[in-house]
Amino acid sequence: MTAIIKSSLPGPKSKEFLAKKEMYVPEAMGAMAPFMIAKAEGAWITDVDGNRFLDLTGGWGCLNVGHAHPKVVKAVQDQAAKFIHTDYSVVSYDVYGDLAEKLVRSTSGPSSKKVAFFNCGAEAVENAVKISRSYTKRGSVLVFEGAFHGRTLLTMTMTHKAKPYKYHYGPFAPDIYRAPYPNPYRNPLSFHELEKKIVSLVNPDELACVVVEAIQGEGGFIVPMDDLLPGLRKFTKENGILLVLDEVQAGMGRTGKFFAYEHWNIEPDLVVVGKSLASGMPLSAVLGKKEIMDAMPDSSIGGTYVGNPICCAAGAAVMDVIHEEKLLDKANKLGSLMKNRFSVIQEKCDLVGDVRGIGAMVAMEFVKDRKTKEPAGEETAKITKEALSNGVLLAKAGLYGNVIRMLIPLVIEEKDLIFGLDVLQKAIEKITS
Ligand SMILES: Cc1ncc(COP(=O)(O)O)c(C=O)c1O
């Protein structure tokens, strides 16, 4: 397949639908793409005017198995024809246990584990904090600079970036402490230095949990200093604190392992999963050690729609596709291809300050000056706009919006990815020429 741009964007039909959106939908629900989708398949989106785009955003990382994977579509259709809803706390169903089993079997580490499902990433993070507080009988939570954990009151508080996520939305939830995230490019703190900062922020015996992304997603695909996760594992264990890994963006195979934390050989107490878990159907999960997950009173976690049967059926199909199509290996292969290309671009172009990532979770950070590392946010926006006008959708990230992150569907064909990288490279060359 190839990109097709037949009209100026938005095309005439998109314009018509966008007028309705403008009339009835709040401006806060803005979209990056200046068009309306008609259909999507694999890594490609076709709009209502017949334009076709390569989607390297995967709906913000929800589509590791691609748009409308036939196995996921069939699972959704079959389940919808059987029953759509019971509320799992009224009548339970096997597809919930089926997906829970598949997730536990894909997880490394010696402990027995159990899974509770929720609707979105933020809700699962909230529940991981509730579970941690209930288990430890403590109230405080430690999070990091650059973190993104969601938009509800608690997770918005845990999220770092003020604008747009927190601006005028306070007051915020209490007892959240924020430590620096050891970023090898901008803030290369050792764990020893970090630990000193943590204990000056909050007494460890008040902490219920530390919530951390193994590789920061919205923060700019930051792979932390190598000793962060092993250091946190040791520190939390010694102080009776639960270690919660937010794998909403980095998990489900994107980094070439099922969960990103596996690259550091640790076993967390709780893991939060979302996004690609059910290929865009609203489903998230907290996966944790059995003794922790079994410690809460009956009905103290849950919700009307949590673990909806159609979403669980989609999730079970996603798990099968990841294994059958060897998507972890593919993430590594496509990741090397992207990283090599990014390094070539970096050599030619001073605007690229850093190239980083693991597996297919790779990114480029743009700076005005390699010495001062002043973020090049406007230039990054121009690059993604230029790529979009040539049929490629790209995702930005970072506190300063100066990172382009690759959230490719892992099922993408290599030649299509190469097309996307060519368009990205040309866009960078055009903006910097
Ligand atoms: C690491 C991380 N945690 C949590 C969330 C929140 O997920 P959701 O938008 O499904 O609530 C996100 C969303 O981008 C995320 O990247």
Order of helices and strands: HEEEHHHEHEHEHEHEEEHHHEEHEEEH
> What is the strand arrangement across the widest sheet?
4-10-9-8-7-5-6
The total count of strands amounts to 15
Write down the Rg.
21 Å
Unreliable segments (pLDDT under 50, ≥5 consecutive)? Answer: none
Going by helix content, strand content and strand pairing, the class is alpha/beta
CATH architectural name of the domain at 70-324: 3-Layer(aba) Sandwich
Mean pLDDT: 97
Q: What is the share of helical residues?
A: 25-40%
Which homologous superfamily in CATH is the superfamily of the domain at 70-324?
Type I PLP-dependent aspartate aminotransferase-like (Major domain)
Count of individual helical segments: 13
CATH topology of the domain at 70-324: Aspartate Aminotransferase, domain 2
β-strand percent reads 15-25%
What is the CATH level 1 assignment of the domain at 70-324?
Alpha Beta
Ligand catalogue:
pyridoxal-5'-phosphate
Shape: globular
Instruction: Report the biggest beta sheet as strand number plus sense, adding barrel if it closes.
Output: 7 strands, mixed
Compute the separation of the termini in Å: 30 Å
